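Side project, low priority. Logging it here so it doesn't get lost.
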Amino acid sequence: MPFPYEAMEITKSFLCPNSTVVYKNAYRECLGDLVLGFGSNVLTVLMILILAIMRRSHECNRRKNSIENVFLYVISGLGACLSCVELVVLARKKFKRDIVLYHEWFLPLSWFTMWIEVIVLSKFACICCIFCSRILSFWWIIKILTEVLYLKIVFTSLEYLDCITESSFIVLDIAFGIYINILRIKKAPPKFSSLEDPLLLVDNDIEENAHRDTGNTGGRLDMLTFGYITSVMKHGSAKQLEFEDLLPLPVDMDPSVCCENLQQCWEVQQCNNCSNPSLIWAICCVYGWPYFRLGMLKVFNDCIGFAGPLLLNKLIRYLEQGSGSSGGYFLAIVLGLTSIFKSFLDTQYTFHLSKLKLKLRSSIMTIIYRKCLRVSTADRSGFSQGEIQTFMSVDADRIVNLCNSLHDAWSLPLQIGVALYLLYTQVKFAFLSGLAITVLLIPVSKWISELIARATEKMIKLKDERIRKTGELLTNIRTLKMYGWDNLFADWLKETRVMEVTHLATRKYLDAWCVFFWATTPTLFSLCTFGLFTLMGHQLDAATVFTCLALFNSLISPLNSFPWVINGLIDAFISTRRVSRFLHCLEHKIDLSDDSGLISEDTTVFVGDASCTWSSNIEEEQNLTIKDVSLRVPKGSFVAVIGEVGSGKTSLLNSLLGEMRRVHGSLLLNGSVAYVPQVPWILSGTVRENILFGKTFDSERYFDTLRACALDVDISLMVGGDMAYIGDKGMNLSGGQRARLALARAIYHGSDIYLLDDVLSAVDAQVGRWILHNALLGPLVNEKTRIICTHNIQVISSATMIVVMERGKVKWSGSPGDMPGSICPINSSSNEFDMSPNVKGSACEPMHFAKTEESLSAGKDDVNPMTEAQEIVEVEERKEGRVDPMVYKNYAAFSGWFITVVIFVSAILMQASRNGNDLWLSFWVDKTGKRLTHYSTSFYLVVLCIFCFSNSLLTLVRAFSFAFGGLRAAVQVHSTLICKLINAPIQFFDQTPSGRILNRFSSDLYTIDDSLPFILNILLANFVGLLGIAVVLSYVQVLFLLLLLPFWYIYSKLQFFYRSTSRELRRLDSVSRSPIYASFTETLDGSSTIRAFKSEEYFLPRFIGHVTLYQRTSYSETIASLWLSLRLQLLGASIVSFVAVMAVVGSQGKSPISFGTPGLVGLALSYAAPVVSLLGSFLTSFTETEKEMVSVERVLQYMDVPQEEISGHQSLSHDWPFEGTVEFHDVSMRYMPSLPPALNGISFTIRGGMQVGIIGRTGAGKSSILNALFRLTPICKGLITVDGFNINHLPIRELRSRLAVVPQSPFLFQGSLRDNLDPLGLSDDLKIWNILEKCHVKPEVEAAGGLDTDVKESGSSFSVGQRQLLCLARALLKSSKVLCLDECTANIDIQTASVLHSTISSECKGVTVITIAHRISTVMKMDNILILDRGALVEQGNPQDLLQDESSVFSRFARASAM
């Protein structure tokens, strides 16, 4: 058996340098003692200790019998005694001054420690949990085998008595091994299936006793090699993957469990550090111990990585000596086995780290969502909506990346330090010259990192602002298109993007400098080190040079990665500070404990001297919205809250809900609450889901609610009935239907208190009367307390209590009969239209009421109780197969073809210069080794300098060209995408949830900005690196060409099998991510409604369901990636073994083909060693590039959306329209082919200067008239003309900009008030103030701070009524000949509405005014009215004439309004 002997010959100089001076075979005993004896004992001690720590909380489920106890203590006691005797004997020999070598102490000392540890732990710990571990049982068998080998080695050099002693130790070990295996079999633990069975010591997570069931029934080999993903990959290579094909999620990765753990630790942090709690410490509390265990594994893994260069050194020295022994084969095989062992360690470490990252990601995302559900509107006011969305889309990922960066922060310096030490052993102090370069780069890196941190922080703020503006644009796209401002908003968005890209460019170019410094360091390191080494008088040899080159290669990854690690740490800490600040916000809760004695059983609402503000800043208490309000509402009251626009009605309701910050006073509610906001919040889902809102389905109450809210007829007309799908923000419902749906939700819940904010403003008078009598005063809620903010006269007349608000205070409250005449809206002659006597006299005729009731209730039996939702929102498109080459081509085009060519050429030349550098070194050592050189050392150094300088220059070109190309692509992608979306028709936005589009602008664009250029850079570096290695190996070893073909075949099969699945998984990942952002955005909009209904526990599981699906795709993606990585690394290990064995064969002259000089062979071996990591890195980076390219693919999908016909055939003069004549000729229009027509053959003519009202039941098609006029929705047939011009032939933006409109939903954007009113800057301040005064909103604007005051997001700094008045002022400033009003006075009091209509009449003389109205009083003085029903024009004429005809439809409307 020559192998063990020769192996000891090679290693004796390392372990036992002085053994040979004592006696011939001393090093054999030394090797046996240190490696096979002491080494295995130390591993055993550590393993037992770690198992004891990890399973310290386990309880024994069985008791040991007396025989087991005796056997355990006898074995361990004998072992401890024998080792103690051995130590005493050695001490005695030392005392007698006999020779005792240092290694002789180690073995008995390790025996003694091990047996004492066994005795102690068997006394104080659960022996079943520790010694019955499968790991320890298996290890003890391996340990016995090593000890048998130890005996074989040392028997030849020991005396007889010593042999008996050593054999006794082995016998005790065998006995103990048999004992623990018998004990394990008797224990017979229940089998469990888990991907985390204890293959390594990092298997136990926080839930150590959790029973896991992931559906994996494979064996240990499958778990070690990730074979359980094979079934998924077979599906992926054969067909399109679906979510049900994915791996099930392990129990301990359940997002609800992860969130709960992190939430508990965060609460502890808040208790311990009230002023500045740290999310980092909370994360450490949950995941710190598993993360620490992973760190220990990483230390071991990193150390194993340096075995390769050391073995390479020995192998090259062996080849230089030309020995004919078999030791070379041993070294070659060990080199391959080391690579294989490290492959398994790498993949297991990555698996457990990825699992930890997934758990952390789900924790962060869920805890942010949970906070959004619980933080009040006032406390959330310190954060913009875009900023909060960035927490979820960007900051969560950056915090998760902390898992990589934190370990790398200490691991990379450790690797660098060990590599430098090994360099010292090769070239002595010459390595200090290279080290000096590294040290000089540290302060430079620190300075660059600080600049990067500052640029990143500024970039994130601008990214938040951009996402906020994008969300604002998408939310209000319909209104913006009607105004013709879509291009203007896009330009503003591009300006924000330009500022963001400025800081992104700073970061990218600084990163490029980092890449340059650290990428050129190994080349400069080798130049300086070898140069100084030769100048010091030493001669270079192949072993020294190529060992150093291998060590330089091992330095490349940590040196190149270090800047990214620093950046990752900076990003993570910035993100944790941002998220911590948000999580530290006060949560929404109303504490009744202090004031519970103030409220009696017959009182449901008590407000005592309360003052509230919308500000989250405690110091801004002077900005009070509710001031010193006192109010007591008896149980069962119907309370009408009235007041002028901006008087504080909505704020009063929000203060009762706890959405405002209470400065002082008491606010108490006695009972459950249902809330309907002024702008109804509609959930994406079916009609039924919106009404049930998490409650169980009660058929009788459900249909009674539909009838009471007049929804039964509407639902009967919907495709799918009450299972019809409602799109984002209720896009496929009219304003009235949205209001009634929100009211139905409140009534169905059967709460004690109803807070209703102007719910009847969006419905017509007939439906409003029905809702008042059947819903608000009906049997479903007539015994409940109802508080409604309103301007509706019928509601005020029916109220049992009236509260009058004025400037945030209660001006008066009491019963309607006691109201002073000066403030009574009922007695004001301007409140309602001047009805003719016959209408007044018949106002209360029961016949009309009965007919209306009959017509509205007719549809109850027509409601279709379907069980499957009818989809109106399009399912997100998902591509199949590989990423189309056109995607790469498009990305290259975005970057610029010239810069793409520069990048490729510079990368290839950079690699060529580096390979040339190494080949020159090989030539140098061969010439000096054979004493054949004719050149001086200076000549070799000069040539080496030329290669080094060329490499540095080309690296700089590549780094900066990549940064420039990535930036150019980022700018072009965003610019093109926003232009395409702006020109998309409104139907696209109706059918596509805004969260899905926003995902492109946040997550996908972040990938294109940051991740994609980074991974492309790595891919290119890996590709040219592999190309260089293949060329050099083929040049040095011709036989490598024979291996290349089968190797490439296996490689291509593996990558094809993996890539097809990987693409599908990444697409599933993107598709599963969109619902998270869509749900999150939707919840942000409706969080106050959710809190009012106390439905947080309904929405949180819904969101967790989305996150769980996202986790499953990411988990399957991770396992598939590791499956590939392991196989590639094993393939690379076979290449290393082949090259090494062939080198040994060639050195012994047994091959007919020469393998070159020692220098070339050494070069080949040093190039073969990194193939293991480079192959895996190449395919991983290639696959990651494909995955990241999915983001480009998804963005390109939205660059291919249908476009509006922007240009027209006819040009317009600057003063068009001249008269304002509007004609509809047989116009029909559908919103979707599957939906009934919204307009059905409508024809009418509106002469210039006429004022026309359009009325009809909710959903009759009133707003569709404006949609057709503004070309928001294309008409199916017919013709629309304005002043004789066919509007289909006109440029669409020019058409919209020439018409003025006040939309149904008032729209104000964040910015100055002046920009909101006149964004194009066409009017001077005097004109703006005059219009504001005529619109009765001037005092409020002056109080807010004038025209330069900042309008908050969504115009929240003004009430809804004030927003409508400002929108009217905006329309009047336009001075158009056609003015369209879509119920612009619905949310203002009747007195102000009457004055405004007088203003419109006086200011708009000669202007065509088209008014969509729900109040009959709005249209009474108009020239003409159009009455619509189900998309058809049923009646038109002068309102006074129609009123005289009792059989007319308008007359019935008027009578319904008067009731």
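Brief comment: The mean pLDDT is 78.
Revisit when time allows.
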